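Problem 12. The chain below contains 229 residues. Write out its predicted structure in token notation.
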Amino acid sequence: MIGEMLGESRRLHPAADRYQQAAYQRQAAQRLVSMLEGYGGAMLCDGVGLGKTYVATTTMVHYANAWRDQWEAVPDRVQQDPFLITILAPHSVVSTWRREALPGLAAFGVHLSNVRVLSHTQLSRVVKASELLAPGRDGRSDLEHLLLSDLVIVDEAHNFRSLAARRTKVLRDLLRVQPRRELRRRVMLLTATPINNSLEDLRQEVSLLFSRPLWLSDNKTPTATGGRR
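Solution.
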């Protein structure tokens, strides 16, 4: 029931409309919200420099405000059980997310204490001494924050195309843990190059949405005449 309430409209929250001035990015964010509500996951494939980051932040504004509106009559719930968001990005762009993409969201209802940006490489180095396990200001480690996140955004998701890579295995296992019984976690993938070598790349990336390996049929597509190509 809660999941239905949160995604009931599948239109952007008015705060997200105010935040995002570019019409094409609002339209992209609304489409992503529709897919996230319908399937629990979505993939945004767009060229470099076309604003994938800001489509993602628009989606963040939507969900943060929708969650607060849902519990408007119980304000303590919003404080004690916030809508948590984790962004996974390459180490080279973590600071860009923190310095440029996130600060402006505070004026549109996104409490930045509920958002954390982690690097891909941190997932490859999960050991007892890992900084992922160090408690933050709220007592919650980055790993715990990720496990409890209601929305996970994977920037440059093509870096998870290798099934053998430790980061891919770790992230898939972490995403298998659902933080709530009544609300499915949403997972959003961002990439400009979903396919580098073959369709296998796309299969591995999309499998993150389902928290398990995904096998595509090897059958060739039937043609209109009944043959195969």
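Discussion. Confidence is low (pLDDT under 50) at residues 1-5, 213-229. Students who got a different answer should revisit the alignment rule from Section 12.3.
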